[in-house]
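Q: Protein A?
A:
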Amino acid sequence: MTPAALLVTAIQVVAVVAFAPVVVGLMRQVRARLEGRAGAGIGQPWRDLRKLLRRQPTTPEGTGWAFRLAPLILMGTTLVIAAAVPLLTTAPVLGPAADLLVVVGLLALGTVVLALAALDTGTAFGGMGASREMMVLALAEPTILLGVFALSARTGSTNLGGIVSATLDDPARLVTPASLLAAGALAVVVVAETGRLPVDNPSTHLELTMLHEAMVLEYSGTDLGLVELASSVRLTVLLGLFASLFVPWGISGAGLAGLPLALAALAGKVGILATALAGTEVFLAKLRMFRVPELLAGSFVLALLAVCASFLLA
């Protein structure tokens, strides 16, 4: 653990947290423009968060520790992931702990505690949203494991920083069948994990179609602000991790020399992915709930084929 690694990791976390609401605002603005609306501007999510974080939260009667601690645990696990994954550098402070299983476990932990909080409220919509979110979690997490495992087969390690470093050393591996199949599978999983169309509609106001939004209906004030900030950070981290795995150029090493270029590259790559995702959403309708497992099962098959290709075509 060096002072340079500590500084780079701190800059990475601060940059992700500061940039995450802007990513959400950019996606909303792109959708608004494509739909013929003016839009509220890319800074509107930050203004909404500032207003929420200044308000006193309210706690529904009868709720326990799960409801009160869920926003803090969700935000905490998200910050740990943001500090561990290779976004600006391949050697962050928590890089040795950035194992595939650890990152997936932290993602699952944040989702589970939020589902427990929704069940703790005792409302029908909270229970419905929690059960649907657990279904998506059970189908998406194995796909993440298999997809990244297909990329790690040639490196002999499931450490995310090691996978990115190996790709930088051998860019030809990105055009292999295993990498292409894994990219398709992980793209679907990122959409599902972040609650975007066609799996979920983050702008819906119809409770019967909600997944993530149904679990946070009872939150307000600071608690709701933490949940919304954590959700935007998770979106940014997953988009950044996808870019690091398949378009790793621009990531710096252990030093500080390449940090400005890495910041610019990360902002550009995440911005392009967010714009493409928002533009695609305009032409998609939300899937019926019984069709979502079919989509996620298809992504699991792609990830499984990627693993097979990584061993058979090595």
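Q: Protein B?
A:
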Amino acid sequence: MKQALTILSAGLLALASAASAASDTDPLVEIEVLDGGLTARGTYMGALRLTLQEGWKTYWRSPGDAGIPPSFDWRGSRNIAALSVIWPTPEVTTTSGYQTIGYHDLLVLPIEITPEKPGQPIVLSGQMQLGLCKDVCVPSELSFDHQLNLQAGRNPAIAAAMANRPYSAQEAGVKSAKCKLSPTKYGLQVEAYISMPSAGGTEVAVIESGTPMAYGSATTTERRGGLLIATTEFLPLTKGSFALDRSKLRITVLGSRHAVDIRGCSAG
């Protein structure tokens, strides 16, 4: 993974200037904040809608073998006690031998917002950093600043994105998820053993560490009957050691029929 990211970074440095110049008059991506109204829990729904030029794609929160993971800066937002970004099911593609995970053409990213002061104005403001790819890959930063319409009704675009999110472990019939942790020369290996029905086709599993102190290499996935086995190695982002908490590991299984979001695993 490190080699893939190095190759991508070199390409970004070489191509970003030309792509940025082209995007001055015809943006590669545009961003809009959508209103989704009040939920039964007393929270509010909003969304970031990203419209990409035809053929362009961007990345999921875990981009795969090569890519730029999106990040957010919410500074400038007001009356927000907590917010949760809800990721729709992404697509798995292979480009130049690298497996990447993301979205093409259009992405609606729902956001559930808990206000500090219910009923008072809520402002969603900040920046989103992301990578964009077609024939070349370029970094991009998008700014947004929007006061939510607290009286808004149900938004069909947000509802569709919510319906396209991965199944929970319970919804997908996951019977158990066990993880074995083993030290490696440079980090920690995680082997996940998941008892679950097939998600369809060639399944791809992604294991996320749950800590900003480590990043994962490519995950290998294989199925043995009713058991899905996913293996990856986590390496430190900086010098020194790090710890993994099994309860914070997040395993996403992407199949041709549906995706599954598994939160945490037991010792195994």
